Amino acid sequence: MTIARLSAVSTLLRSITARTATATALAALVAGSVTAQTVTDTVMPEAGLSIPSDAQILGNANSNVYRPSATVNGEIITATDVEQRIALVRIANNGQLPDEEIQRVRLQVFSQLIDETLQIQEAKASKIEIEAADIDREFARIAAQLRQSPEQFTQFLAANGASARAMKRQIEADQAWQSLLARNIDPFTNVSTEEVSSMRERLEAQRGTQEYRIGEIYLAATPDTIQAVAENARRILQALGDGSGNFQDLARRYSNASTASVGGDLGWIRLNQLPTSLAEAAQSMQPGQLAGPIEVPGGVSILYLIDQRSVLTADPRDAVLSLKQISLAFAPGVTPTQATELASTFTTRTRSIAGCGQAEEVAAALGADVLSRDQISMRDLPPPLQALLTELQVGQVTPPFGSREQGVSVLVLCGRDLPEQAALPSTEDIAERLRQDRVNRRAQRYLRDLRRDAVIDYN
User: Fold this and answer.
1) Which CATH architecture has domain 316-417?
2) Any signal peptide, and if so, which residues (predicted)?
3) Which regions in the chain score pLDDT beneath 50?
4) I need a labelling partner for 44 at 20 to 30 A (CA). Which of 137, 300, 345, 363 fits?
5) Do residues 307 and 213 lie in contact, with contact meaning Cβ atoms separated by under 8 Å?
6) Regarding the domain with residue range 65-191+445-458, which homologous superfamily does it belong to in the CATH classification?
């Protein structure tokens, strides 16, 4: 039920209806297999349907096109509601929403608004009232995290084509849904000790196996269109390679997989959960690398290896670091020649640092700034820096990195706490994860039932 939210605004607003993404081996096992999107041309007896593979449309194919408003069980969703929510999506994409994507986003928004209306209606039918004060409090909390007052946040939304009303409606729907789940599903969802024991055994059996966190942009194709689709995939790869595109944004825009709404993130998976062609590509990749276009059943895919790990095994990249960053900012208008000279001097001087105790002295001589940070998870750093810091000894310095716009920096490694052998999650953690997964599945069925019973009149 989520689509892209506000971006700087986005990161905060995703918390309203965020999909819970877990990075544990436990979650991967509980969630089951995640595979790349595939297309089939066979009938569907397993779904209780009988659809011929050569089905022909006999009626008017335009009868189900998007209409600008709808009445859901007597409650109207207007074209204005849709357009204001689209404005939130546009803000989430840094003001960019290509014309060719508008129709797809409009359909997603319309579907989301219908779901939210059903959730609010169901809460009211269950005598659950969402107080206006609670909605205003959440709206103010979001505004405060953006360092704005509620009034300023309201003006910001309006200036970008959205509205406080659209935002508050979203908040109301989320609070209504959470209240419904807390009353009707949470109290009646339990996990047996046998299930927990079985999960512990499965986790122990998985110890040491490799898992990969993968992003995928899947582009559907037919035999007639495969060449054109592959060429489109190469253009997307080029945009990712030259830095003009963001993987998560491009996945939301172009991927035909169900993971598009979460930026193409497949989560933590094992290679046997992927089609053979994707598994072979992922096995030879390093974190941060892209691969594609790769032919898969029904189309082509672009892969992005976000991270990899060994299940329940200590990994050097799980280390917690103490760092000092020495940064030299370039003055506005600096020429490429001047930037190169400054970077060269900076490199020579910082290379001579022998231990963190000399960082301030060298920085002062260069006119650079020093930032000291403890408790930095190595996995939170960009993959190239992870690789460098894994090989460094305490007191050593990374090679310089930066740009003409941001200046040049180095990191001095002041301390590194290596991880111990990973332990199995506690019985309580396993039970709670199993319970939450069961709650999520029941919540999905609950919403499907609401949709099935709804009377929706598209105007």
Assistant:
1) Roll (3.10)
2) 1-36
3) 1-44, 46-47, 59, 61-66
4) 300
5) yes
6) Porin chaperone SurA, peptide-binding domain (1.10.4030.10)
